[in-house]
Amino acid sequence: MTAPPLLTVRNLRVTYPAAQGDIHAVRNVSFTLARERLGIVGESGSGKSTLGRAIMGLVPRPGRVAADELRLGAIDLRNLGESGFRRLRGRRIAMVLQDPKFALNPVMSVGHQIAETHRAHVRGSARAARRAALEMLHAVRIRDPERVFGLYPHQVSGGMGQRVMIAMMLIADPEVLIADEPTSALDATVQTQVLAILDELVRGRGMGLILISHNLPLVASFCDRVLVMYSGRVVETCGAGALRQARHPYTRGLLASLPELDHRRDVLPQLQRDPAWAEGA
Amino acid sequence: MSAVRRVLRTLFSVVLTFLGLTMVTFFIGRVIPIDPVLAIVGPKASVETYARVRAEIGLDLPLPVQYWRYLTRVLHGDFGTSVITSQPVLQDMLNVFPATLELALLALFIGVALGVPLGVVSATQRGRWPDHLIRLVSLFGYSMPVFWLGLVGLLLFYAKLGWVAGPGRIDVGYEDLVPTVTGLLTVDALLDGNRDVFINAVQHLVLPASILGYLSLAYIARMTRSFMLGQLRQEYILAALAKGLRPARVVWVHALGNAWVQLITVIALTFGSLLEGAVLTETVFSWPGLGLYMKNSLFNADLNAVLGGTMLVGFVYILLNLVSDLLYPLVDPRARSRA
Amino acid sequence: MSGAGLRAWLLDPVPASRRQARIGRWYRAALAFGGNGLAMAGLLIVLALVLIAIAAPLIADPQAATLQSLTDRLQPASWAHPFGTDELGRDIFARTVFGARITLTIVALVGLIVVPVGLGIGLPAGYFGGAVDAVLMRLTDIFLAFPRLVLALAFAAALGPGIVNAVVAIALTTWPPYARLARAETMTRRDAEFVQAAVLQGASRASILFRQILPLCLPSVVIRLTLDMAGIIITAAGLGFLGLGAQPPAPEWGAMVASGRQVLLDQWWVATIPGIAIFITSVGFNLFGDGLRDVADARGA
Ligand SMILES: Nc1ncnc2c1ncn2[C@@H]1O[C@H](COP(=O)(O)OP(=O)(O)O)[C@@H](O)[C@H]1O
Ligand SMILES: [Mg+2]
Fold it and tell me: Of the N and C termini of chain C, which has fewer Cβ atoms inside 10 Å?
């Protein structure tokens, strides 16, 4: 427990101004991340993606981010500015998005997109970037990197697209990876495969991983620790193994509706909700 | 869709549009109230002469047969003879078209080279003052009648300021000094190495081309803005930012790279509308191109020439559609692999 | 009902009746439009134009618009002639004011032709699909692929110059997008529940098309028309400039610009002022149309 945390978040708030009053998408969220796998669960709209984007400095206009403390290692992220963030993104902290069909640029070859991350952060020739991209494709267990390098996103399957996405985000060796629903758009058969690759890379490189999902069993089986979010707030934090002993009614509700969760994204029929939870009761 | 089917489909629609075009011009040719027989034989001719000439030019045949004959002639490049010049209309058009092309090409270049960047800036600065300014500039552009802008331009830049040369394509003293190779006067002057002619031609070209260019800029900037706003909302933009690219690269390479796919059609359309705008611009600037030729023919009841010009512009339209279809795969790998 | 009560009723998020819901939707759209300064400016310009056209005889002397007075030729602006006079000594102010009538007549007539033709082709194409659709849409595509001004020019040349022929020529090249639009709207509506209900109640196809589907297509068609108005005005002015529109001595703006061309260098106002009128009018229609479209887009989203 002597190593300083990779990421420190204290009282993070994200607000979207709107005509009918501000939307508080994230309210006073606090946690720290070490070299571990932290899961964040919650139903759709609970603020998980916004939280991830706030850490990356990518909350879209006119959203506002405020925090009492927001640090990546020793770097204060609060007043970093766009160019400061740019040097960190991809290099020290990266993000895997949900659906490779939309998250990869359709008019650029996948190899080019991977190499591009390398070139943005590592000085060197185009040839070196290409070599690194090929190695990275190999590392995400793509069998014929030379061929896949030249393919375009529409020519690769969902599973392969997500492995490309992972390669693109990990090629510059970041120490923290935020994976926002990385397998939700994939067929069940390739989900485990992609997760295994992610797991292997994160462990092998000693990274910290934030795995965002609405899928509680997946998070429970994959992560060391779980945050449960509801309406922008963390309502429960516990070890993944201790989830069955969770006390918060919302978490218990999530657990109770487990069978549904595998298939349905948004509907949690038996789930009770209490506005008081959002107020930090 | 397989490559063969794609090409077949495009060809099918090209042929169909071409047939439609010829039908319309054929129809216009018959609707016109002038009696072509009377025009040939004169009002004093006997009934027999009239009937003979009528049969000679085929007007006694059923309409479909007449159309078929018309179509065959058009396909052989025979648009009839111009009353004014007594030359084949095709020959006339080949003489004047390069002047129009020179004007339209430069205008298109101005429109794309300025309109696309302005549209991109407008989209990235959405809601801030550069956006408002650019939108205002383009609103003015597509609200202005080109013939009026041309006149005001002449008044200001030629008469008052003396920055550019006046109407016409070249001053009288420089006419016919360089041999015609491409028909584009500036290019021919360069090929011939004749500096004076080149400078004079540019001085004449720059104002009409800028004015047409401004109008296409207005439209291209507006469309670019809206395409860019659509692209900037996409997930791949978030991913590109998340991997640490500079915002400029995300905007100009990633978002714009995708916007080009949509822009190609817009640019083809713009080029078409430039050819149209030529009729008015060339009238204002006495620019000896296809537009002025058509306008003069119009007022001398030279129907063959008017219909020939309509056909030529329509044909270029069809070609532009075809070209933008063929260009798609260059900017869109999805179209490439479908092909 | 008090003002606040009415407002609450209009903005009720859970309307009690379909009527309230519909009126509320319009009210919200009007609020959004009113909040858009540029769109309101456009609306004001258009309204001003309509007013000027209606009240033209009150604003300017009808006789001055066509009265030639060779002693008053090419006068600069003065109290008697706020915009000066043209080459025949006519008052440019009066001509510009009365020109608004011609311009509005042209756009109105084009609209009156284009909307029914577009709907007449687009509705059946979208509703029946199949061969009907294929034939009608091929026809539309052919016209869509035509150079607009040049075709209008050829038509105007064949039919002879004049306002009516200019209108027909412009309409002939303007309708295709309306057919496309009406077809697309129809295709999204034809399977709607209330249409199916009408089918079950034994309504005829014609009645379904015209009673049920047509009203739903109208808003987007009208918005499209507003967006096209500026283009129509500019095309009409172009035909007028070439001498193919309204014939002298009618005070058509495009023709007025053309007549000022000869004296451009010395009496710049003759050509410039009617051009400014065209410009302001089309800016007005463009702003108005953009505003309407934004509201419609926001409502659709
Ligand atoms: N760009 C935005 N503007 C306004 N509100 C937003 C925006 N993005 C997200 N929100 C709102 O923030 C809340 C959290 O959204 P999100 O972080 O996407 O949730 P999750 O990822 O858990 O599904 C939602 O209520 C959503 O409507
Ligand atoms: Mg999310």
Answer: C
The residue in chain B having the minimum alpha-carbon distance to the alpha carbon of residue A49 is: B238
The structure tokens listed for A210 are 């934030």
Average pLDDT (A123-136) is 94
Runs of H (alpha helix) within chain C: 3-11, 18-34, 37-54, 56-59, 62-66, 92-128, 130-144, 148-159, 163-174, 176-189, 193-200, 205-207, 214-241, 253-260, 268-300
Phi, psi of B326 (to 5 degrees): -75, -25
Residue A220: which of A254, A249, A190 has the closest Cα?
A254
From A234-243, B35-44, C100-109, C277-286, the region with the lowest mean pLDDT: B35-44
Name which of A117, A103, A17 is nearest A59 in CA terms.
A17
Q: Tell me the CA–centroid distance for residue A128 and ligand 2, in Å.
A: 35
Do A187 and A159 form a contact (C-beta atoms < 8 A)? yes
Query: Cα–Cα distance between C231 and B25 in angstroms, integer?
Result: 24
Phi/psi of residue A206, nearest 5 degrees: 60, 45
CB atoms within 10 A of CB B248: 9
Which chain C residues are Cβ-neighbours of B306 within 8 angstroms?
A: 153-154, 157
Which residues, in sequence order, are CB contacts of B193 under 8 Å at separation 6+?
Answer: none
Q: Which residue's C-alpha comes closest to atom 10 of ligand 1?
A: A25
Tell me the CA distances in angstroms from B114 to A242, B163, B217, one per residue in order: 62, 21, 6
Q: Which ranges of C129-147 would DSSP assign to H, the alpha helix?
A: 130-144
The residues of chain B that CATH labels 1.10.3720.10 are: 92-338
Half-sphere exposure of A109 (CA within 13 A, CB side): 15
Q: Which chains touch A (3 or more CB pairs under 8 A)?
A: B
Q: Quick check: C299 pLDDT over 70?
A: no
Locate the DSSP E strands across A119-255. 176-180, 208-213, 225-230, 233-239
| Distance between CA atoms of residues C60 and C93, nearest Å | 7
Residue A206 has pLDDT above 60, yes or no: yes
Which pLDDT does position B39 carry in this prediction?
A: 67
Number of Cβ atoms within 10 Å of the Cβ of A52: 23
Which residues, 6 or more positions from C13, have their beta carbon under 8 angstroms from its beta carbon?
none
Pocket test for ligand 1, best of A16, A65, A265 (most atoms within 8 A of CB): A16
Its ipTM equals: 0.89
State yes or no: pLDDT of C195 exceeds 80: no
Q: What is the pLDDT of residue C86?
A: 77
- Beta carbons of C242 and B295 less than 8 Å apart: yes
Residues of chain A whose beta carbon is less than 8 angstroms from a beta carbon of chain B are: 53, 56, 58, 82, 86-91, 94-95, 97-99, 102-109, 116-117, 120-121, 152, 154-155, 165, 168-169, 172
> How far is Cα C20 from Cα C13, in angstroms, rounded to an integer?
10
The domain ranges of chain A are 99-173
Give the class (CATH, top level) of B92-338: mainly alpha
Per-residue pLDDT tens over the stretch B236-262: 999 999 999 999 999 999 999 999 999
What gap in Å lies between CA B91 and CA B88, rounded to an integer? 5
* Cβ atoms within 10 Å, residue C21: 12
Rounded Cα–Cα distance for residues C10 and C3 (Å): 10
Which domains are present in chain C? Answer: 37-63+94-300 (1.10.3720.10)
C294 C-beta neighbours (distance < 10 Å), count: 16
Amino acid identity of residue B111, one-letter, is G
Q: Which atom of ligand 1 is least distant from the CA of A53?
A: 17
Tokens in use for A42? 């919650």
d(CA C128, CA A64): 51
Which residue's CA is the closest to the ligand 1 atom numbered 16? A47
CB contact under 8 A, C154 and B28: yes
Distance CA A115, CA A126 (A): 8
